[in-house]
Amino acid sequence: MITDYFILALKNLRKRKLRAWLTMLGIFISIATIFVLISLSLGLQNAVEEQFRQFGTDKIFIQPRGQIAGPGTGGAVELTKNDVEVVEKVIGVKDITWWIIATGEIEFKDEKRFFNIIGFPLDQSDVFIETGFYKADEGEVLDEEDFGKVMIGSQYKYNNVFKRPIKERDIISVNGKNFVVEGILESLGNPADDRLVYMSEEEFREITEIEDRIDTIIAQVEPGEDINEVADRIKRKLLKSRDLTEKTRDFSILTPEEVLETFRIVLNIITAFLLGVAGISLLVGGIGIVNTMYTSVLERTKEIGIMKAVGARNSDIFLIFLIESGLLGLVGGVIGVILGFGISKGIEFIAINQLGTTLLQAAFPFYLVAGSLLFAFVIGALSGALPALQASKLNPVDALRYE
Amino acid sequence: MTEIIKLKNVAKHYYMGDDVVKALDGVDISIEKGSFVAIMGPSGSGKSTGMNLIGSLDLPTSGEIYLDEHDISHLTESELAQIRGKKIGFIFQSFNLIPNLTAKENIMLPMLFQGLEKNERESRAEELLGLVDLKDRINHYPNQLSGGQQQRVAIARALANDPEVILADEPTGNLDTKTGENVLQFLENLNKKGKTIVMVTHDSKLAEKHAQKIYWLKDGKIEKVTRKEKEKWKTVK
Ligand SMILES: Nc1ncnc2c1ncn2[C@@H]1O[C@H](COP(=O)(O)OP(=O)(O)OP(=O)(O)O)[C@@H](O)[C@H]1O
Ligand SMILES: [Mg+2]
Fold it and tell me: Which of A270, B45, B114, B230 is most buried by its number of CB atoms within 10 A?
């Protein structure tokens, strides 16, 4: 019976005039918007989570607080070697590394550019390389004893940072000191990160004249230890050594899980906001369906009278119109999903080719497609409910007299 | 003869502001099972109103209506719809086929609302199309059919649920004389096979040619009732 109503509704939809279809513009634009937003947001979430997984879940990050503008911008609060020594001794900490960041003047074949440079202790290079998930695309990553050498981001090779791409073994000068390029890294997915230059801590301090400051300490946790407990222990030790209380704490301790959680919350808030905007457009689209269905009920008043004359109950008429407007919504949904798929792919393409980031990848899980379609159907049906109710309540004799 | 439909002192009033239109004003009509009854009268006399009440398409302002000896004047709309779909077949002056549906689908519609299976509906619809001699127009849409063909589809649709009563409101009104005569001949054949026929017309020749009993309406009241006995018309009331 219900399937027959679907067939009936489909037949009616096929005979729809262009005008009726145009009112669906709102529906498929909003479904497309929602589809694009969710698909990109999911994709972004997946990409970031993937990066974190590579990152390892056994690392704790200690940074001075109040560095809203990012590390290296300076501020009253600084971490130093003293803090490293404190953290190193905490039970459960297996290895430790750290880094400092600053802007450097990079010169290659008489061209000069300013980019961020990073210094890290070479004797801890294993931990550092593992933490950042650095891999050499060409040459090798920095190892112990690799003084006088640098490893550089992928953009120097592929994205024409300088007129000519830099190759392994080339000589570049940083703040006037010459370095041999030991390796060029694989892309980290973020253009700014892919323009970093890495070198030994000692040489970094020498050329930047930064004496003690450390921007981030990374502690690797012993296998089998609870990372949150170790983080807590580090916090307490540091508070004591820096003579602070929880209230005056001037450093932050982050675990990957926390960072990920923060990221998820922020992303969800943004997505929710955008979905709200899309929701408003969907409401407008729904009103379009209400309008179409009211017109349709009016146009087909006589038909309703005929159906009642041949035995249709109010509930039959209601269902027929409800299904019809649901299908109207569904058609809008199908167009919206196809449109949304195209737009998401387009944005992904632009992100990769123009922005050089692989973070903005569209994801199309089955439930997103199915959910969008179901949602469109429900919106259609809801919008059609009132017109359908009106249709079902028509008096058969009056409806038959309607011309 | 048993009565299949009986209207007892039925009135139908329409209220338009302070005015009352008494479309029907206290009529008694009884339709015997298997009879061919005509309702005659000038325009606006209340024929269609009476027809709609007989067909349980509408409820009276006052009075009682019996279908198969059950009082239907107090049923809900849904109950009425079910009874109407099962026991009564309508034929209208303007055919009233659904334009988006083919001939066959139009005929299947009343069976759908009675919950019949699809293949059952299809075979019955095809059989009925054969009966009205339109086997070759199964998948035609109403606008691809002539008036006479449309009315035959409408007749087939009226027969879909094998109802006991066929109600026809001016069935020949939109047809030329010859086609109209064919339709009436068809109705008469149905009557001979046992169907009860009630026909509204303002053409007294047609009524007297085919019907066995005629209700003459005027201004919502029954002016007289005539009956054909041994090929002669007698006033019985
Ligand atoms: N819904 C309505 N509202 C108000 N008045 C109505 C309504 N339906 C019918 N009438 C009035 O009731 C009277 C009887 O109408 P009805 O349609 O039964 O006439 P009829 O005999 O079928 O006429 P015709 O031969 O022209 O079809 C008319 O005066 C008509 O105006
Ligand atoms: Mg009439």
Answer: B45
Residue A319 has pLDDT above 90, yes or no: yes
Strand partners, B19: B16
Sequence-separated (6 or more) residues with CB below 8 Å from residue A34: A275, A278, A279, A282, A336, A340, A372, A375
Single-letter code of the amino acid located at B198: V
Q: Does B112 touch chain A (CB under 8 A)?
A: yes
Q: How many CB atoms lie within 10 A of CB B199?
A: 27
Spatial strand order of the sheet with B88-91 comes to B88-91, B165-169, B196-201, B36-40, B213-218, B221-229, B232-235
Which residue among A302, A313, A395 sits closest to B78, beta carbon to beta carbon?
A: A313
Q: HSE-up of A393 (CA within 13 Å, CB side)?
A: 6
Q: Is the pLDDT of residue A68 over 70?
A: no
* C-beta of residue B134 within 8 angstroms of C-beta of residue B156: yes
Q: How confident is the model at residue A69 (pLDDT cuts 50, 70, 90)?
A: very low
The mean pLDDT value for B41-59 works out to: 93
CB contacts of A4 in chain B (<8 Å) are 112, 118
pLDDT (0 to 100) of residue A279: 81
With a threshold of 0.90, tell me whether the complex ipTM lies above it: yes
Tell me whether residues A11 and B109 touch, CB distance under 8 A.
no
- Distance CA(A302)–CA(A400), nearest Å, equals 5
Of the listed ranges A224-233, B47-56, B110-119, the least confidently predicted one is A224-233
Summarize pLDDT for B179-229 with one digit per residue, the tens. Answer: 999 999 999 999 999 999 999 998 899 899 999 999 999 999 999 999 999
Instruction: Tell me the longest C-alpha to C-alpha distance in chain B.
Output: 54
CA-based nearest residue to B173, from B144, B150, B142, B196: B150
Domains and CATH numbers, chain B: 3-235 (3.40.50.300)
CA of A391 to the centre of ligand 1 (A): 23
Q: Which of A15, A302, A310 sits opposite B113 (nearest CB)?
A: A310
* Count of beta carbons in the 10 Å neighbourhood of residue A40: 22
Residue B211 and residue B189: Cα distance in Å, rounded? 12
Better pLDDT: A59 or B168: B168
Chain A neighbors of B84, CB-CB under 8 A: 309, 311
Answering whether pTM is above 0.90, one says: no
Task: Inspect the interface and report whether the beta carbons of B98 and A306 lie closer than 8 Å.
Answer: yes
Confidence grade of residue A66 (pLDDT, cut at 50, 70, 90): low
Distance B168 CA to ligand 1 centre (A): 16
Candidates A4, A12, A311; nearest CB to B81: A311
Q: Atom 14 in ligand 1: which residue has the minimum CA distance? A: B46
Token digits of residue B237? 């009331």
Quick check: B49 and B102 in contact, CB under 8 A? no
* Cβ-Cβ contacts under 8 Å for A112 (sequence gap 6 or more): A105, A106
